[in-house]
Amino acid sequence: MSNPGGSEPSDLAETTRVETFADGVFAIAITLLVLEIKVPHVDEAHGGLWPALAALWPSYVGYVISFFTIGIMWVNHHVIFQYVRKCDRAFLFANVFFLMGIAFVPFPTAVLAEHLPDPATRNAAAVFFSAWFIVIAVMFNILWHTGISGGRLLRADVRQEGLETITRRYRIGPLSYVVTAAVAFVSAWASLTLFFVLAVFWSLSERGEK
Amino acid sequence: MSNPGGSEPSDLAETTRVETFADGVFAIAITLLVLEIKVPHVDEAHGGLWPALAALWPSYVGYVISFFTIGIMWVNHHVIFQYVRKCDRAFLFANVFFLMGIAFVPFPTAVLAEHLPDPATRNAAAVFFSAWFIVIAVMFNILWHTGISGGRLLRADVRQEGLETITRRYRIGPLSYVVTAAVAFVSAWASLTLFFVLAVFWSLSERGEK
Amino acid sequence: MSNPGGSEPSDLAETTRVETFADGVFAIAITLLVLEIKVPHVDEAHGGLWPALAALWPSYVGYVISFFTIGIMWVNHHVIFQYVRKCDRAFLFANVFFLMGIAFVPFPTAVLAEHLPDPATRNAAAVFFSAWFIVIAVMFNILWHTGISGGRLLRADVRQEGLETITRRYRIGPLSYVVTAAVAFVSAWASLTLFFVLAVFWSLSERGEK
Amino acid sequence: MSNPGGSEPSDLAETTRVETFADGVFAIAITLLVLEIKVPHVDEAHGGLWPALAALWPSYVGYVISFFTIGIMWVNHHVIFQYVRKCDRAFLFANVFFLMGIAFVPFPTAVLAEHLPDPATRNAAAVFFSAWFIVIAVMFNILWHTGISGGRLLRADVRQEGLETITRRYRIGPLSYVVTAAVAFVSAWASLTLFFVLAVFWSLSERGEK
Fold it and tell me: What ipTM describes this predicted complex?
């Protein structure tokens, strides 16, 4: 049929550019986080600069948690491309869809930082924050399944049992954020602590496999 | 003549860097969209955080539509480079010209988000939004024609009929945004809905070809 | 001596990463330009959205001129790497120095856009704008000379006469911006028009050589 | 065991993408610095535009120092990848951790620029600025040690004595910023001058080795 560009070499090339584009979005989303931290102005720092800087702790907490979580997402996004080496249009769009989730992270982070010091809205902000990561984790699972379904896009030497191990692991993602969201209804701080513990758990457990 | 850098190998290398640069601009433009969504401050959230977050729906609509549309543009930009493998200065500048259009998207998006809740200016904002995508689609066609005209920049194995199919398809782009712009004079919402339908249509139809 | 990383292969690899980093800075600087264009708010658009959007013309002028000029700088930056294929530390730092100039462009652009409608400060803003491009053009010449001096970093097949042609051409850069700066003391508009004419001239003349 | 993606080739591929991602974060952090420089508005420039632009000197100082220092960090980050050619999960996370430090730099830079003209808070701002570079330098040493420990991730032809030279050199980093921080308690200007001298020293000394 009329596919003059050829299918095989162009597909292979695409994967590289998908990764470049994704790396760009990850890098920008993660670096934009700092813009949400507002510099204390001279006239607000009459009690000294240090207390003014210390008062920004909610912004620092948001920065660290989001940075670390996006970092883990980036590492996991890499793992996909150790298996998926070609891409079709469905995978391309699943990737754009997933990146729409990642690029949005500075917003729930800023909401969290703004409302963490306020007892009235703190828990809602933490629920919103966790809820967004449920969405991202679901998008990530959609991306993974789009990549492996049919086997057309996989490397030649991938073993089925390996895919299933990963699939099971990724399924935990959305569930774990459902838990942090549920906890956030009761306590924002307990939820964020759990967020951190989960991040450490994910990084250690994945490392173990390798 | 005095072309010490050699023409053939450097031209090939250029294409890669054009793609890297374009991917950078796409990735940044798409990620900057989130900066236009303003965090509800503590003193604006006295009725609770959820209503305050819900009141930002126009920003979310703008974010999703622009993200998805830039995403499709990015996918289509890739398609060009499945055919065009070398680049001369005319193509380089056509690409810069096209990216000028893409990098501007956060502005009409922010205008749309700001004015979507306002009945007096809503339709004008949607016309402006569609109008900008007419401009981008025209720039895209210029880029495509600069790339394929003369055949000098094409891969060796490209077939003429394939180019013509693509050319016909891309010609629909500006026309479809003329329609959404026309509809926006009457109803912003109908126009945006059509925008979405067209985006889905484009992604499915292109996928069909492959 | 103690150079365990090996000199030859790592030097070659460096060039790629220098280009990637530069492309990143170019792409970001060029895309950040749009952030300087302020969305007309609903309460400012009581005369209608179209007049409010039209009133932003100085921002559009600044956006287009800076985008196009950074684009030309990016194209010229590529030309350097058609000749320079290895890099030492001096070249790395000359590149960082040059990028410091490029990354600063959104600032004089915003100054220009802010003051273009004000007769009292318009010319000063245009002088400042041109003055910054003198600085960038000088930095560009320093980068070029760092790259070609000694011949150590050049491709093997580069011919001396070709280098001299380029060197002569690049020397015009700072001079041309000195002229636009001088004209800006008298008329901001004449200066910006000249800016445009020069940009077109540069793109055409360089294309001719190839 | 269940590692279907294969360990050896994917590890090699990872290094490239780690560098791309890092280059992205460096490029964005360094380019965002300009956003902290506030354009003098028309109504603030009644004494003329030039005095208004001159009054922004603290922002320019912050921009230049941070740009140059991030630039040096970027050059040093490259040096790591002349030795480390594979990466495991520990190295990936050490890299994310280090980039968290780099991406934060626009904040202490903006704090410095805001408080440099204020005698009451100037020194504290300079201490904060130096303190952050102590943190980054420590993170950099952690990254380096994660990369070279065990030797698993190193290029085959790396010599032990070369690693030790580099290790000794990098150890000076945190110490030198401890000195600039200590000096900042007495004089912000002396501290920033020392910052500059150190930057020049680092760039010259590293160049000497090559």
Answer: 0.81
